[in-house]
Amino acid sequence: MQKKRSLMNSPTYKGPDPRLIFPIRSEVSWSYRDGRIVLQYPKNFNWLERQLHKVLKGPEDIRRPLDGIGTLLWEMSDGEHNLVEIYLAQQERFHERAEPVDKVVGGLLETMLGLGLMRLDYRERNGEGSVRKAKRVVVRPRDDGRS
Questions:
Q1: What is the predicted pLDDT for the residue at 5?
Q2: Does residue 111 fall inside a structural domain?
Q3: What's the mean pLDDT when you consider all of the chain?
Q4: How many CB atoms are closer than 10 A to CB 147?
Q5: Domain that holds residue 91
Q6: Is this structure's pTM higher than 0.85?
Q7: What is the C-alpha separation between 48 and 3, in angstroms, rounded?
Q8: For residue 52, is it within any domain?
Q9: How many domains is the chain built from?
Q10: I need a surface site. Which of 1, 31, 38, 98 has the fewest CB within 10 A?
Q11: C-alpha to C-alpha distance for 2 and 4, rounded to whole angstroms
Q12: Does the residue 93 lie in any domain?
């Protein structure tokens, strides 16, 4: 219990309560290679890229290999594990390599959200301690001037 409390009071974390956020992976093709996950999804061509692709040919899919941290995040993003459980698993397995865990995992999660490879499910707690599904996650702007 001590780990959760220190994680929640982290000076680097700003945002909604991670105990209520459940990452869910999108329906993309993925497989294991050398113990790591490789994602495969279609490229999103703009007009110029589409014209160049017609002439130059090339693959229409992107193969994105994940590192160990990304692999564990992908495996645990099934809608059953909240962000705190993912943070603690990352901290336990990768120690200093994933420090500060909220920044490392959060950055990777932000990238995957931007690429449409994951989505977030936000569940609010009601008075009885059960969980009620909410409509969306509200992302607050950063304090350091970036948005």
A1: 46
A2: yes
A3: 81
A4: 7
A5: 2-6+25-119
A6: no
A7: 50
A8: yes
A9: 1
A10: 1
A11: 6
A12: yes
